Amino acid sequence: MREQIKKEVEFIIPLDSLEVKTIAQVLAWIDSGVELCRIEKPATPDKHLVSYFVVVDGDYILLVDHINAEKWLPTGGHIEAGEHPKDTVKREAYEELKIQTNFIHDKPLLLTSTKTVGKTAGHTDISLWYAIKGNRLSALTIDKKEFNEARWFHREDRPMNTDPHLARFLKKLYA
Fold it and tell me: What range does the domain containing 111 cover?
């Protein structure tokens, strides 16, 4: 699985110098042989893989008010050992929103390395960002243990309290 994850990272076309640097650092991290997946909650090892997915309906994106992060975020989750990042998206889309996955792009659009904030602050999430199709007219069933609520936002009218890389992702998505 390590090689498949590496291929996902290598596929990403960098947006900017930050992403060029992040890709190089993450590839070196993958090649180092360390554990890539979280093996114990909330943060063991201190750096681990996450699949983020932004649910998109035209010019609208779905964000969730994440209880632990205390921010409006895309949905997603930790990649489990032996799990392909796209399979994480499929699993988490169903667990968190009760929706089936229809990828807009076959590969991730963005790679980020972010120190977490909120109630489980301090570890580093290496996040592969995917986009999936959604329908803002369909009712959602959200995981109330993880989210206070879910809301559709126009891509130009996002909340201030969100992931610091969301604007970069949207720039790539809508390019």
Answer: 2-173
Tens-level pLDDT at each residue, the chain (175 residues): 999 999 999 999 999 999 999 999 999 999 999 999 999 988 899 999 999 999 999 999 999 999 999 999 999 999 999 999 999 999 999 999 999 999 999 999 999 999 988 888 889 999 999 999 999 999 999 999 999 999 999 999 999 999 999 999 999 999 9
User: What are the φ and ψ backbone dihedral angles of 62, each rounded to 5 degrees?
Assistant: -95, 130
Structure tokens at 95: 């667990």
Cis ω before 45 (30° cut-off from 0):
yes
Report the CATH number that the domain containing residue 53 is assigned in CATH.
3.90.79.10
**What domain count does the chain have?**
1
DSSP 8-state code for residue 6: H
